[in-house]
Amino acid sequence: MNPFRWSFRKQFLLGFACCAALLGYAFYVQFHLRIQPCPFCIFQRIAFAALGLVFLVGGLAAPRSQGARKAWSLLALVPAVVGIGYAGRHSWVQLYPPEMPSCGPGLNFMLERQSWLGVARKVLMADGDCSNINWQFLGLSMPMWCLLWFLALAAWALLAGFRRR
């Protein structure tokens, strides 16, 4: 059975399952392997959760019209592009670490003092510990894998929404 020929519903529910599995693995790494996430990691998790939510609701709605499927596909693209931005920036920080050895205050502290937009801006200017590579698979760090997954899921959403039925 060719997954590229599946219904919109099946394709979107598979996208949800991928996001749920990726988040599950992130929590496994945090709580079982005891590798603590940095602020970049937290924002990537939020992007995966938002993308998964769009996949789930879109899959359950299973729109019949081509226009509605395109709209759901473009809606899924929003958290995917945000995730691509965070994962890409995190990968960049790991490849070209800044000279400052600190990632700054914790995420909870920053949220108490600033708005979400201010915290997001602060995280994007990351320095130090965010550049540590604590986990690798096939020579790629976790943010690099996240970047690949965000790209793949964005392409999957576009395929589901823009494929002729």
From TrEMBL:
Location(s), subcellular: Cell inner membrane; Cell membrane
Residue ranges, Cytoplasmic side: 1-11, 164-165
Transmembrane portions of the chain: 42-62, 74-92, 142-162
Top-level taxonomic group: Bacteria
Broad class of where this protein is predominantly found: membrane
Periplasmic side: 29-46
Cystine pairs: C38-C41
GO cellular component: a single term: plasma membrane
Topology in the lipid bilayer: Multi-pass membrane protein
Residues making up the signal peptide according to the UniProt record: none
Keywords in alphabetical order: Cell inner membrane, Cell membrane, Chaperone, Disulfide bond, Electron transport, Membrane, Oxidoreductase, Redox-active center, Transmembrane, Transmembrane helix, Transport
GO biological process: protein folding
Any GO MF annotation of the entry: protein-disulfide reductase activity
Stored InterPro entries: DiS_bond_form_DsbB/BdbC, Disulphide_bond_form_DsbB, DsbB, DsbB-like_sf
Role: Required for disulfide bond formation in some periplasmic proteins. Acts by oxidizing the DsbA protein.
Protein family membership: Belongs to the DsbB family.
The protein's name: Disulfide bond formation protein B
Species this chain originates from: Pseudoluteimonas lycopersici
